[in-house]
Write a structure and sequence with these properties.
heterodimer, A: 138 residues, alpha+beta, 6-stranded antiparallel sheet, 2 helices, 8 strands, 22% helix, elongated, B: 514 residues, 7-stranded mixed sheet, signal (chain A)
Chain lengths: 138, 514
């Protein structure tokens, strides 16, 4: 339970960079632009199939400490960077639950690093290797 | 992350501490409820019945204390003994019962859901479906109909030429109008709201203006929505008018708006019509950017777009972060929400307009309403055409505890003039009387014409009002009823089904009763 609390709190910082209600000096600053620790080359998928997307989704979920990640069927085929937001839940009238959101979307990048494909959280530089994914540097 | 032993011990220590101090009336068996006395919610957090670290009572006492600390109208919560109630049942009671000036419940935005469901990400703008947005008319005395409001470009629906105004007749062999048993309703809901890609569904469709039905089979896929569509420039006798359809304040929309306003700026439009009829909100910072692009640098310089106001326990600080409150300005540059689409730091294109026409329905909500309020706060004339907006000047920080995430209203957004009291929504009116009445015309969502078509009811009313300064007779008597107001595609995952009769009449799930 405590882990859940801390994970979620951490995620809020990662997502919002500022926490809800706190206006940052520059809202563009968090989660945008390359981390100095991310040293791989931006990459695109060579085999954008179900296996690759399953591994990518699972890795991004682990990276962001989320339960599930939905990707489009052409993700990482045209751009190495991808922006993700919390799934758009709606109220009974079909309106977004978070119609007034201060969360900063997260960005991840597919990279080629030391001969393997990795997915990198750009705000923190944290990365996870993708052993079954085939990609090539752009 | 904490190690497993620490995880186990820390809550126990907290629990022991609470047992000694909570609520002023506790004993060795743990915290208890004492009317009017509230333990710090941090001391009650993560003590859950499910894993034995706490109990249902500690979960309820946590939400009671959390509400007393952060709920916007905490003083209007009746402090009742949590004992007789289930956890979620008790949460439902931790809100105001006050009414708005129109007699509606002041708090209509009190939710909870499993944290497992809440903690899900999706590629920005992506959802499972066919790419067709729908409106459902149903309820007592109403023949159930499902009509397409618009289709996303490059989606299965668009590929099948399913467009605005088309009516769905049946789904997988079940007639929509006549279905009256749970099995049939389940088939309709499963077809309309697929939960995963690959599901094939057969639809019988009557296209707008057609005299015969046709049958199409659509395969659900991950559709990435295009939030900004139909940008165009019209030449009229009295100048150039820009139009754009804007459906969601999400990350890709920053690029869409940037491109649209660049086009409109290059065309030197004299007026702008923004179609927000299906825009339920999203990123507040993006709405501040949009307001800047409309109003321009001079009108917005040193002005507040929106200021968050928490309860009176926190007049200057954010209770969720502990930091000093500072207002949201009209943001003048790109933020780069989706850096793969638009880099940060570019100057935004501006139109520097003194007035703007906005098309609205009950589906126009939150960040969309913040746009209306923010512009009015700096005396940009906002002319509303359509229906009354949803009335959500509020926000919250979804907060997890014991595998459930709670949404309880914590702040109200106010404009530069300090106005934020629009819980009944902004209402278009030819003769504004109330602070929430906005100059303009009432008009219904005209599903008989494409969005952006100059003959579409709301758009044509805007053009007519612009030309004559009065509401056209054809629309002045129309009211955009909640049942007619289209809403975005339903949440295909966790179902927050509201069973209240008033919601059943305008909800976007198929209900058993026709």
């Amino acid at each position: 339970m405590l882990k859940r609390w801390l994970c979620t709190a951490t995620l809020w910082v990662c997502l919002a960079g500022c926490g809800i209600g706190n206006v940052p000096a520059d809202p563009a600053s968090p989660g945008n632009g390359r981390s100095v620790s991310a040293q791989g080359q931006p990459a695109l998928l060579l085999t954008p199939d179900a296996t690759a997307y399953a591994e990518l989704s699972e890795a991004i979920a682990r990276l962001m400490e989320m339960n599930q990640v939905m990707l489009a069927e052409d993700a990482f085929t045209e751009t190495s960077v991808l922006t993700l937001e919390r799934k758009a839940h709606t109220d009974p009238q079909g309106r977004p639950l978070m119609g007034r959101s201060l969360e900063k979307p997260v960005t991840v990048e597919l990279q080629r690093l030391a001969g393997e494909c990795v997915i990198v959280h750009l705000a923190t530089g944290q990365r996870i290797a993708l052993p079954s994914v085939r990609c090539q540097a752009r | 992350m904490l190690s497993t032993p620490t995880k186990t011990i820390f809550p126990l220590l907290l629990f022991a501490s609470v047992g000694l101090t909570a609520c002023g009336g506790s004993d060795s068996s743990g915290p208890s409820w004492v009317k009017g006395e509230f333990t710090d919610h941090a001391e009650l957090a993560d003590q859950c019945a499910s894993d034995g670290s706490g109990s249902a009572l500690t979960e309820k006492l946590w939400m009671r204390s959390y509400s007393d600390d952060t709920y916007l109208w905490y003083s209007e919560i009746f402090d009742r003994d949590p004992g007789p109630y289930e956890v979620i049942e008790y949460f439902e009671l931790l809100k105001t019962t006050a009414l708005t000036p129109s007699g509606a419940p002041k708090d209509q935005f009190h939710f909870s859901m499993s944290t497992e469901e809440w903690d899900q990400l999706s590629q920005s703008g992506a959802s499972y479906g066919y790419g067709m947005n729908i409106t459902i008319a149903q309820g007592q005395g109403i023949t159930r109909t499902v009509t397409i409001t618009f289709s996303e470009p490059d989606s299965p629906a668009a590929d099948a030429d399913i467009a605005r105004g088309a009516r769905l007749i049946s789904i997988d062999g079940v007639n929509i109008a006549n279905a009256n048993d749970q099995g049939s309703i389940d088939i309709l809901n499963a077809g309309l709201f697929p939960s995963k890609a690959g599901k094939q569904t057969e639809f019988v469709v009557r296209d707008l203006g057609a005299v015969a039905d046709r049958t199409v089979t659509l395969t659900a896929t991950t559709v990435v929505a295009t939030p900004v569509q139909n940008t165009q420039v019209l030449d009229t006798d009295s100048g150039r008018v820009g139009y754009l359809q804007f459906n969601s304040f999400n990350s890709p929309a920053e690029r869409g708006l940037f491109d649209a306003f660049t086009e409109l700026s290059d065309a030197q439009v004299d007026d702008l019509v923004i179609d927000l009829r299906y825009n339920g909100g999203g990123l507040v910072w993006l709405s501040s950017q949009l307001a800047y692009m409309i109003a321009g640098p001079e009108a917005t310089e040193d002005k507040t777009y929106e200021r968050m106001s928490f309860n009176d326990k926190y007049p200057t600080t954010n209770p969720l972060t502990g930091k000093m409150l500072s207002p949201t300005p009209f943001w003048p540059t790109t933020i780069g929400f989706a850096p793969e689409m638009l880099v940060k730091g570019l100057d935004l294109p501006t139109l520097s307009l003194e007035r703007v026409f906005i098309l609205t329905t009950a589906g126009t909500c939150s960040a969309s309403e913040a746009l209306i309020n923010g512009l009015r706060g700096i005396d940009v004339e906002v002319i509303l055409i359509g229906g009354t907006t949803c009335g959500k000047p509020y926000g919250y920080n979804p907060t997890p505890n014991c595998d459930t995430t709670y949404f309880t209203i914590q702040f109200e957004g106010m404009n530069h003039k300090g106005f934020g009291a629009y819980s009944d929504g902004f209402a278009p009116s030819p003769n504004p009387m109330l602070p929430t009445d906005v100059q303009g015309c009432r008009a219904g969502d005209d599903l008989g014409h494409a969005l952006g078509d100059v003959n579409e009811g709301m758009f044509s009313a805007a053009l007519a009002y612009r030309q004559t300064g009065t509401c056209p007779l054809a629309v002045s008597g129309k009211v955009a009823s909640p049942a007619a107001a289209a809403v975005p595609f339903v949440d295909e995952g966790f179902m927050l089904e509201d069973t209240r009769p008033q919601s059943q009449a305008r909800g976007n799930r198929i209900l058993t009763r026709p």
